[in-house]
């Protein structure tokens, strides 16, 4: 009985849906996290009677065909790249992006990764790095005797060196933006990689070409709405239960048929 298989695809799809929702909820406090959503498509159809097929020699046609579907499948889990809330941290090297841009991070293997997580630190040499120790790109070093580090909305990094009365420019932060942000590949550690679907990175200074400006002393929080996620979780659970009921009903029908013989 096909109903068993069809309902099983529905249960599998909702199980995947719950996995996506649970990951969103787990990352509610992850800096710069972007929520995902599951998208579905129906499977192939068995054409028993095609719409428009002739039913007589006079040319009469079937107005509506007879099609039996094969179920559902999960086809994508795109990220919703909307702006998350910006919270004050007062960290001197914490930076939030208000706009579509991404910070660029130099990976040890030479690749460039992209992130919305602006919680930067200084390593032993004074170079700005992320929480995993990967260098910011382009690299910026803060001397040991630097004080009063400031990061302007346009990405200019300045500090007072030693007893200097005027600040010295230490570097310039740059941001990357993509035509299709949802096409970026997640690699964990709050990092994304460029793909053919995302298009090449368009690099510029902040406040140019829609990259957005920067806020020092702030961090962007996850764009996960707890109420929305719980509502989606309940809906997914109910859909899973209904598919399970279909399997139970189909089993009872098969049992009744077997008892006739």
UniProtKB/TrEMBL annotation:
Flagellar hook protein FlgE/F/G-like D1 domain sequence ranges: 96-159
Keyword Cytoplasm: no
Compartment list: Bacterial flagellum basal body
Family note: Belongs to the flagella basal body rod proteins family.
InterPro entries the UniProt entry points to: Flag_bb_rod_N, Flagellar_basal_body_rod_CS, Flagellar_FlgE/F/G, Flg_bb/hook_C_dom, FlgE/F/G-like, FlgG_G_neg, LlgE_F_G-like_D1
Pfam families named among the record's database cross-references: Flg_bb_rod, Flg_bbr_C, LlgE_F_G_D1
Gene Ontology CC terms, in alphabetical order: bacterial-type flagellum basal body, distal rod
Complexes and interactors: The basal body constitutes a major portion of the flagellar organelle and consists of four rings (L,P,S, and M) mounted on a central rod. The rod consists of about 26 subunits of FlgG in the distal portion, and FlgB, FlgC and FlgF are thought to build up the proximal portion of the rod with about 6 subunits each.
Taxonomic superkingdom: Bacteria
Name this polypeptide is given: Flagellar basal-body rod protein FlgG
Matches recorded under NCBIfam families: FlgEFG_subfam, flgG_G_neg
Biological processes per GO annotation: bacterial-type flagellum-dependent swarming motility
TM annotation in the entry: none
UniProt keyword terms in alphabetical order: Bacterial flagellum, Cell projection, Cilium, Flagellum
Residue ranges of every copy of the Flagellar basal-body/hook protein C-terminal domain listed in the record: 216-260
PROSITE patterns documented for this protein: FLAGELLA_BB_ROD
Presence of the UniProt keyword Acetylation in the record: no
All copies of domain Flagellar basal body rod protein N-terminal, residue ranges: 4-34
Main localisation: other
């Amino acid at each position: 009985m096909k109903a068993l298989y069809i309902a099983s695809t529905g249960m599998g799809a909702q199980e995947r849906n719950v996995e996506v929702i649970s990951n969103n909820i787990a990352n509610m406090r992850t800096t710069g996290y972007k929520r995902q959503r599951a998208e579905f498509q129906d499977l192939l159809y068995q054409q028993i009677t095609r719409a428009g097929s002739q039913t007589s020699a006079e040319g009469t046609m079937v107005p509506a065909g007879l099609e039996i579907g094969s179920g559902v499948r999960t086809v994508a889990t795109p990220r919703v790249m909307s702006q998350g809330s910006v919270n004050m941290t007062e960290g001197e090297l914490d930076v939030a992006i208000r706009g579509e841009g991404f910070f660029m991070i130099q990976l040890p293997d030479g690749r460039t990764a992209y992130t919305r997580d602006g919680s930067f630190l200084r390593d032993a040499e004074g170079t700005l790095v992320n929480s995993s120790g990967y260098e910011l790109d382009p690299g910026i070093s803060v001397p040991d005797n630097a004080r009063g580090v400031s990061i302007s909305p346009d990405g200019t990094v300045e500090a007072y060196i030693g007893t200097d009365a005027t600040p010295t420019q230490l570097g310039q932060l740059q941001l990357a933006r993509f035509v299709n942000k949802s096409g970026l590949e997640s690699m964990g550690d709050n990092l994304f990689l460029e793909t053919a679907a995302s298009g090449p990175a368009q690099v510029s200074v902040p406040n140019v070409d829609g990259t957005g400006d920067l806020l020092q002393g702030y961090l962007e929080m996850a764009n996960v709405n707890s109420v929305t996620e719980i509502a989606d979780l309940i809906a997914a659970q109910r859909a899973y239960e209904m598919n399970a009921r279909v399997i139970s009903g189909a089993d009872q029908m098969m049992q009744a048929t077997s008892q006739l013989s």
